[in-house]
Amino acid sequence: MAITIKDIANRAGISAASVSRILTNRGRFSAATAQRVRQLAEEMGYYKNQSAADLSQKASRVIGVLVPTTHTNFADEIIKGMQRQAFELGFELLIVFLEDDVQHQIKTVKSLLSRQLLAVVMLAVDLETAVFDVLTAADTHLLSISNQLNNGIPSISSDNYAMMHTIVDYLYDQGHRQVALIGAADPDSVVATLRRQGFIDALAKHGIRYNPALIWGIDNAYKTGLETIQNFGVPLPFTAVIGSADIVGIGILNAAKDAGVAVPDDLSIITVDGTNLTQITRPRLTAVQQDFAQMGELAITTIANQTLSPNTIIFTDVEMRPGDTVASL
Amino acid sequence: MAITIKDIANRAGISAASVSRILTNRGRFSAATAQRVRQLAEEMGYYKNQSAADLSQKASRVIGVLVPTTHTNFADEIIKGMQRQAFELGFELLIVFLEDDVQHQIKTVKSLLSRQLLAVVMLAVDLETAVFDVLTAADTHLLSISNQLNNGIPSISSDNYAMMHTIVDYLYDQGHRQVALIGAADPDSVVATLRRQGFIDALAKHGIRYNPALIWGIDNAYKTGLETIQNFGVPLPFTAVIGSADIVGIGILNAAKDAGVAVPDDLSIITVDGTNLTQITRPRLTAVQQDFAQMGELAITTIANQTLSPNTIIFTDVEMRPGDTVASL
DNA sequence: GGATTTTGAGTAAACGTTTACGCACTTCGT
DNA sequence: ACGAAGTGCGTAAACGTTTACTCAAAATCC
């Protein structure tokens, strides 16, 4: 069995309490014994039993993270950011992937909650009400990343409304007047709604009347992108298209190739996300890059600072990443 | 503060021990009280304090998972598989991403070890000796997935040697006689070595003398693929190329496009991994698909069954996935 | 119906750590 | 040199759960 604080205490000829004080760097102890104890701990290969510590101090340092299985390829970026900051501040992440089945989700969340959690972070997930209720019933802090909710849960994400202005402005400057938005048509999604509104308002700002037909595609999935060309038919009723995720853009790119539509000469593509997927296509995708690592870091910092009030929204940076898929008209 | 077993006991008019027995479904209790207790637990919103439970039963149900940050895009597949099986069997996964800095890695691993871990699973990582020593010093079980080690650590992976036979046979059947292997030239990597050996032996089997120049590229990275064409020069000294990972194949595909080499007419490409990346290229990549989810599930099963003896190697399935990047000569 | 087994449930100790409290001893100020 | 303040450390309780041990009551057997 493992080495405990008592083993160290015995060897050092002092009480377990003293060892604990030294190892946690709390309370009073002499530098001399501290030195000796730390040395012994190292030598004997001591590892704190975190469960015992958690039990003793009622507060835990574990943060639960809910990740959707429908793999968004930026989730790892966010997780990396969280992990980095969590490590820095001495927190632990309990990452859990959510299957699609609701009953399964409920069971998963419940088992997650049996850890005394500091907070639960939802990564770009839209939870069913049933699952959501389980979470809110438990009195743990909640935080949503990369997805704004309309129920008061604080969130961290890009400014989806402003982001669409950035994109539309860019396209307008390049001479584009007919622009389509693909993958943000879901009326129930807060993020999609913000994007649509930003899209429409930005066009209006430039005196362009918004054409409802040019907002299409519920999912921001590869399949949505693939079906885009076929849906509108060639010749396309727009010169540029905005993909609501990199993977949507790749779908459009491939569909264009299949249909003999030249990118960017016949069609310009710009996507939202800017993950490294944009670098491995030919031509390279032009994108607005979201700072996912920053979202992750901010999430942990926010939790650590206890600055989680309902309805708070924190916006992270966004940057234009020109690639080779936007033509100047 | 949270509801405890005692609160339930009080309300039910029985002792905490009985409640525990009922909730863990161990020992003796009557169906009637069980019913009542479970009902109360539900009503009162009880969540087991897992820390206390872990402390009480010395054995923990937490499995540590080490994941490299240099993102291999199949890691999530493996994790998903692990998660699914872990949930099934009542285990928990503590997933930790490893930064590149060794000192940082050591600290990370140490903090991981302060949880009483059932086992530590390494996901396709090659650890520095220093980090490795920390792991072996702690008396926890170790298991390596998707990467064979030469130090006795049991592992789960595809049969890399046999896999190269599968690939070479396939290419040979399509008429290819000059074949290159890209991204497996690292002499220190056990996996790369197995692949090289399989490659060479498979060629020999068909009476083809192995040309050392055609094994090139240390990393299985995008960059390696990108530089391949330039490295060999056009016309290429081979008709088919094996990418040691999908991402390498994509690099080769893009470089070929840039160099005016037609795929598959002038060059056939086949990759190892078969992740969904192969579906989003044009043409679609032909690949041998590894069953990553299976690796993950098996890892957990193996740990659960305690069948972890040193030097054990478990092979998972591999399947040929024809795409559009291999031509028949 | 008496002896024996089975059942349901309580008691108490244990897991390893933290921490409030208290005590003896040292240091310091005057 | 005497009281006050400070320092180092030990004692013991607490955190919530599990489990070996008991024991009384109920069920079973012949």
TrEMBL record, chains A, B:
Record Pfam families: LacI, Peripla_BP_3
Residue intervals of the HTH lacI-type domain: 3-57
SUPFAM superfamilies attached to this UniProt entry: lambda repressor-like DNA-binding domains, Periplasmic binding protein-like I
Molecular functions per Gene Ontology: DNA-binding transcription factor activity; transcription cis-regulatory region binding
Domain of life (superkingdom): Bacteria
Keywords: DNA-binding, Transcription, Transcription regulation
Record-linked InterPro entries: HTH_LacI, LacI/GalR-like_sensor, Lambda_DNA-bd_dom_sf, Peripla_BP_I
Protein's UniProt name: LacI family transcriptional regulator
